[in-house]
């Protein structure tokens, strides 16, 4: 690789700058649990525009930034062209740069599954595979598009799988089958599940030895009970993005509780409809030290929790919710709960999101004072933000 003589910075520094400029905000390229991370979300258009712009500046910048341009690939209808573009045995082919692949079900029927399998085979360092929710899939599966078996390849580099399940599509197996994909991804660390799981028999008993994070989108109580039969020795973090049947989620806490360190409630208005926090705390095992939730999307505990939770750290996200009639009454109830007796081990309250308008209100110091009076440290997730 030849660099221009008038380039003032060494290539190593340019790579760091380009990496920071093109990194997705929500950590979609990582399999490590991060609080309040999105899933199934697209990398922002700003990031994509930045990547495209960098490679058009000059030959030097193109040589340095090209690896970031193909880092996140979204498969679209021209599957054959993409397959040929990624397929090569050379040391610097685009397929080797792909880290995240978004693969719609509409492109994995029997007409194009061969090209899709070839695309996967051309990405030997793929970290994240996304099978997204698509409304049109349900409308189209009445056709005989998924009646033939589809292929699969070894996914030994895969560490994260964001999977929206379609019962009618999974019958074709291969890359359309969650079981087949999991069987071929022995080092999977992060699994997101959602969709149409009609029967527990679809999955059976699974052994995922490396899985550390399980994210539950919209899944049935039947599936939750089935998951309780899985062998997940490394599981430490569970994210719940919906309000499940109480008996099913309580079984999840009971089964995996002794090994969990983190529980997170997602940004969903259903958590405003019932007291999910109290239900969780009553069943919370002593191993759970961190609890994260969206304060304006979650009902505060309505009754005193008799069990003394061992939670030491609570992350509170301030993403706004327009359904709340009185924001400050809602916030006041949550801070009373945080500063009360239900969390005797609480040491840290970490604020995520945009708290700037709330902090300007003269009522906020009183809320913060309750926690500090309890001996809790109140801080922002971003160290660059300080108190007014």
Task: Pick out its properties.
disordered C terminus; alpha/beta; globular
Return Rg in Å: 23 Å
Mean pLDDT: 82
Oligomeric grouping of the chains: single chain
Instruction: Please report the distance between the alpha carbons of the first and last residues.
Output: 49 Å
Largest sheet: 12 strands, parallel
Based on helices, strands and strand pairing, what is the structural class? alpha/beta
Strand order of the largest sheet: 1-2-3-4-5-6-7-8-9-10-11-12
Number of helices: 14
**Helical amount among residues, as a percent range?**
25-40%
Question: Roughly what fraction of the amino acids lie in strands?
Answer: 5-15%
Could you explain the architecture of this structure?
This protein is 31% helix and 14% strand. With 388 residues, it is an alpha/beta fold. Strands 1-2-3-4-5-6-7-8-9-10-11-12 form a twelve-stranded parallel β-sheet. The longest helix has 13 residues, at 327-339. It is globular, with a radius of gyration of 23 Å. It starts with 10 loop residues before the first helix and ends in an 8-residue tail after the last strand.
How is this structure best summarized?
The protein has 388 residues and is α/β, with parallel strands linked by helices.
List the SSEs and their pairings.
Elements: H1 11-22, H2 45-54, H3 59-69, E1 72-74, H4 79-86, E2 100-102, H5 113-121, E3 128-131, H6 135-140, E4 160-165, H7 167-170, H8 178-183, E5 190-195, E6 213-216, H9 221-227, E7 237-240, H10 246-256, E8 262-265, H11 276-283, E9 290-294, E10 313-317, H12 327-339, E11 348-352, H13 356-360, H14 364-373, E12 377-380
Parallel strand pairs: 1-2, 2-3, 3-4, 4-5, 5-6, 6-7, 7-8, 8-9, 9-10, 10-11, 11-12
Helix pairs in contact: 1-3, 2-3, 4-5, 9-10, 12-14
């Amino acid at each position: 690789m030849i660099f221009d003589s008038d380039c003032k910075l060494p290539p190593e520094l340019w790579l760091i700058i380009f990496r920071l400029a093109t990194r997705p905000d929500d950590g979609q390229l990582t399999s490590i649990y991060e609080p309040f991370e999105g899933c199934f979300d697209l990398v922002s258009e700003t990031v994509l525009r930045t990547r495209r712009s960098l490679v058009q500046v000059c030959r030097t910048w193109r040589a340095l930034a090209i690896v970031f341009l193909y880092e996140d690939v979204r498969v679209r209808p021209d599957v054959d062209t993409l397959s040929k573009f990624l397929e090569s045995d050379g040391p610097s082919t685009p397929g080797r740069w792909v880290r995240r692949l978004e693969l719609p079900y509409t492109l994995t029927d029997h007409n194009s599954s061969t090209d899709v399998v070839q695309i996967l085979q051309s990405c030997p360092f793929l970290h994240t595979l996304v099978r997204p929710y698509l409304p049109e899939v349900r409308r189209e599966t009445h056709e005989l598009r998924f009646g033939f078996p589809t292929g699969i390849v070894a996914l030994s580099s895969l560490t994260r799988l964001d999977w929206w399940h379609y019962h009618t599509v999974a019958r074709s197996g291969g890359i359309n089958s969650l079981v087949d994909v999991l069987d071929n991804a022995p080092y999977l660390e992060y699994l997101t599940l959602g969709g149409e799981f009609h029967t527990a028999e679809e999955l059976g008993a699974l052994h995922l030895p490396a899985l550390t994070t399980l994210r539950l989108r919209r899944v049935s109580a039947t599936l939750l009970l089935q998951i309780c039969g899985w062998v997940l020795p490394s599981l430490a973090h569970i994210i719940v993005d919906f309000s499940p049947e109480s008996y099913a989620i309580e079984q999840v806490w009971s089964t995996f509780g002794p090994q969990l360190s983190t529980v997170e409630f997602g940004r969903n208005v259903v958590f405003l409809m019932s007291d999910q926090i109290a239900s969780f705390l009553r069943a919370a095992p002593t191993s759970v030290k961190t609890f994260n939730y969206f304060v304006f999307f979650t009902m505060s505990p309505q009754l005193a929790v008799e069990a003394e939770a061992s939670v030491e750290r609570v992350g509170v996200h301030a993403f706004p919710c327009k359904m709340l009639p009185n924001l400050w009454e809602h916030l006041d109830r949550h801070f009373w709960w945080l500063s009360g007796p239900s969390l005797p081990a609480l040491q840290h309250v970490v604020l995520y999101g945009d708290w700037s308008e709330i902090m300007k209100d003269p009522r906020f110091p009183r809320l913060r004072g309750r926690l500090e009076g309890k001996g809790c440290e109140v801080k922002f997730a971003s160290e660059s933000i300080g108190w007014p």
